[in-house]
Write a structure and sequence with these properties.
By secondary structure, the chain is α+β, with helices and mostly antiparallel strands. The chain contains eleven helices and six strands. The chain has two domains: 63 residues, no CATH class; 193 residues. Helices cover 60% and strands 10% of the residues. It has a four-stranded antiparallel beta sheet. It has a two-stranded antiparallel ribbon with strand order 2-3. Strand 2 and strand 3 form a beta hairpin.
Length: 288
């Protein structure tokens, strides 16, 4: 006996859905309103976060010595002088800004560990509740939740954002971050230039080849100019285009209260629909 049993397909009908919602409008509407109210209360309970941004471009701090590469051969490399382009130099500067070492120094200088882990810090007693956080934990939290770095590779413009609950502190940290990184790179460059000049002076005193001595003098002249610029230029590594400012109290990065209320309303609507469908299913079972 060949019999085929076909099960009727339940097609989703907008009319049936609307009819279901209308029959259970009281329950679904109540759940939706309760969800929206609960989400609204939650949005007010959440700590407001503010976003402060610094926009800058890497300054042209390259040594500009590529023209002398053919004349000096390996001499510049022995002196520790980079003859490469400025693009590589700017990438190195940005990596220094992102580096864990500089971030840890910044956190330590400004005493940010108790601020980053305020819930674990007893301000009255001046001690930690339980195990104190490590510097590695502080750097990780700062990188993941506090600082954001975005670079436009086409224009070279970089935006550093600090997101924090204190809008004044957020602006201060953002500006200080760039200023201190710039100063650290300046001091590093001055030290490198000083070592290079000492080497070149010694090399010029020992060589007797006129062409080499002339090239060394040109290199020393360029290095002296670079050292002067490093000491006197306001922006050595990062040229500030738009400094961070204290945001208006209403200009919050989060929470997005309208979105939270809407999501609460949708969640309540879904809960109400599931609840109503469950009640209808139980009623059908009892009737059968």
């Amino acid at each position: 006996m060949n019999e085929s049993t076909e099960f009727p397909r339940r097609e989703i009908s907008l009319a049936r859905m609307w009819s279901f919602v209308w029959r259970n409008i009281a329950l679904i509407a109540t759940c939706s309103i309760v969800g929206a109210i609960a989400a609204g209360a939650l949005s007010f309970a959440l700590t407001p976060m503010y976003r402060s941004e610094v926009v800058f471009s890497p300054a042209d701090s390259s040594s500009g010595l590529s023209d002398l590469g053919g004349q000096l051969g390996g001499l510049a490399a022995l002196a520790g002088i980079n003859l490469g382009g400025s693009g590589k130099k700017s990438d190195e500067m940005l990596e220094y800004l992102r580096s864990r070492a500089f971030t840890a120094q910044f956190i330590q200088r400004h005493g940010l560990v108790p601020i980053l882990f305020a819930k674990r810090w007893d301000a009255k007693r001046g001690q930690w509740r339980g195990e104190p956080p490590t510097m590695a934990e502080a750097v990780s939290k700062f990188n993941l939740k506090v600082r954001q770095i975005a670079e436009d590779r086409r224009t070279g413009i970089v935006t550093v954002a600090i997101i924090w609950s204190d809008r004044v502190a957020a602006a201060q940290w953002a500006n200080a971050l760039i200023a201190e990184a710039d100063d650290a790179l300046r001091q590093r460059a001055i030290a490198e230039l000083t070592r290079s000049l000492d080497y070149l002076k010694a090399e010029s005193a020992e060589t007797t080849v006129v062409e080499v001595r002339s090239a060394v003098y040109k290199l020393m002249e360029t290095e002296l100019k670079n050292a002067m610029l490093a000491r006197t230029r306001d922006a050595y590594a990062f040229k500030i285009l738009d400094p961070a400012v204290v945001r208006d109290p209403k200009d919050r990065d989060s929470p997005n209260k309208p979105l939270i209320v809407f999501l609460g309303f949708v969640f309540g609507f879904l809960v109400g629909g599931i609840w109503a469908r469950s009640r209808q299913h139980r009623a059908q079972r009892h009737a059968a």
